[in-house]
Amino acid sequence: GNDPQNTSIENGKKIVLNCSVQTHNPTMKIEWLKRIDGQQSFRPDALVFGSEQYEHIEQSHELQSQQYSNEILSKPLIFSSVSLKEAGQYICLIQNDKAVNYKKAFVNVFDSRKGKKNDI
Q1: What are the tens digits of pLDDT across the range 5-59?
Q2: Whole-number Å distance between alpha carbons of 44 and 113
Q3: Separation between Cα atoms, residue 5 and residue 17, nearest integer Å
Q4: pTM of the prediction?
Q5: How many structural domains does the chain have?
Q6: Residue 117 is assigned to a structural domain of this protein
Q7: What's the Cα-to-Cα distance from 70 to each of 29, 77, 99, 118, rounded to whole Å?
Q8: In a domain? residue 55
Q9: Which domain does 51 fall in, by range?
Q10: What are phi and psi of 24, to 5 degrees?
Q11: Residues 84-88: contacts with CB within 8 Å, 24+ apart?
């Protein structure tokens, strides 16, 4: 699919969140944001969607550069080894000079070792 999917993934595994849009306009921009959880006070650098605050994803993630071919603009977000702290709500933000559109995906990260311990 073109939209990012809600995903449940084991700690340390690779995950790819897809985001693409069909467009005749290659100047559109795709950005990835992550919800700021447990932040009561307003952060000046945050972007607000609804009543929730989001931050731009650090470049330390393997953020692919935007690709445009066959009128499809795409920019996947890749975690080669996802960590528990990377769980949360993500937004793929698609903007052109006229409008902004966004798609949400929730990433749940679980620790398989912890689960096995509980079974004993």
Answers
A1: 999 999 999 999 999 999 998 889 999 999 998 767 888 889 998 889 999 886 5
A2: 38
A3: 7
A4: 0.83
A5: 1
A6: no
A7: 16, 20, 22, 50
A8: yes
A9: 7-109
A10: -95, 0
A11: 84/11, 84/109, 84/111, 88/34, 88/35, 88/37
User: For residue 49, which of 64, 35, 63, 29 has the smallest C-alpha distance?
Assistant: 35
Is the four-CA dihedral 80, 84, 86, 91 of positive or negative sign? positive
Which segments of 1-120 does DSSP mark as H helices, in order?
A: 112-119
Of the candidates 2, 5, 6, 4, the one whose C-alpha atom is nearest the C-alpha of residue 23 is 2
The answer to whether residues 108 and 81 touch, using CB atoms and an 8 Å cutoff, is: no
Domain membership of residue 118 (yes or no) is no
Q: Which residue has the tokens 């809600």?
A: 6
Cα gap 120→117, rounded to integer Å: 6
User: Under the phi-then-psi rule, with left for phi > 0, alpha for psi from -120 to 50, and beta for the rest, what region is 70?
Assistant: left
**What residue has token string 């066959």?**
70
> Tell me, what amino acid is at 28?
M
